[in-house]
Amino acid sequence: MSLSLLHGRRLLSSGLALLLVQLLLLQYLTCTMAEGCCPLDWLYFSSSCYFFSKTALSWDNARDWCSDRNGHLVIMHTEEEWEFVTRHSMPTFYWIGLTDERTGKWEWVNQTPYVMNSRHWKPGQPDSWTGHGMGHGDEDCAHLHSDGRLNDLHCDSRMRFVCQSHSQRSS
Q1: Which bin fits 47, alpha (ψ -120 to 50), beta or left (φ > 0)?
Q2: CB atoms within 10 A of CB 7
Q3: Of 155, 157, 76, which Cα lies nearest the Cα of 119?
Q4: Residue 76, burial from CB neighbour count under 10 angstroms (0-12, 13-18, 19+)
Q5: Preceding amide of 91 cis, omega within 30
Q6: What is the C-alpha to C-alpha distance for residues 13 and 33, in angstroms, rounded to an integer?
Q7: How many angstroms separate the most distant Cα atoms in the chain?
């Protein structure tokens, strides 16, 4: 092996090591003990990470996509969570983790009951409409409408979705 090739290898190796150190430093600076760490393209809020998709999937496929990334379709229990999610979702439609498909009663994807709050829904919703032309079934999945309020829709409809996962703490 020539001397210039060995020298080039050493330079490349030291360059990669420097990039690794810079990446670790960047992670340390952006992931502190006070706040959690979220994957790239996820947003941190109140100890959770949120992903607002740019691609459209059916509700089931969106649920699986989130699960494959150690998360779930978003569950919102507090007004602060509702405000955060709707602020980032408007004016686009997004699937959330709310469905009545399993039991006929609205529940979150983790099977906790949803407490009906008509203020969060579009007027006249949910309505379980069957005239959607999408085959069997009514509207069993909830999504955020462009104004940030809920609507029920056939689960095979395709739209963007919001995933949620627990943030990771730096060590």
Answers
A1: left
A2: 10
A3: 76
A4: buried
A5: yes
A6: 32
A7: 78
Residue 128, pLDDT score: 72
Instruction: Say whether both 57 and 3 belong to one domain.
Output: no
DSSP state of 46: T
End-to-end CA, the chain: 42
Joined together, the tokens standing for residue 31 give 């992931």
Note whether 97 and 161 are same-domain residues: yes
- Asked if the model's pLDDT at residue 29 lies above 60, the reply is no
Residue 10 to residue 71: CA distance in whole angstroms: 41
Give the Å distances, CA to CA, from 99 to 18, 26, 30, 74, 94: 48, 39, 35, 12, 14
Note if the pTM is more than 0.70: yes
Judge contact between 164 and 50, C-beta under 8 A: yes
Q: How many CA atoms lie within 13 A of 162 on its CB side?
A: 30
Two structure tokens written together for 123:
């007027």
What is the total count of domains within the chain? 2
Domain residues for the domain of 19 are: 1-30
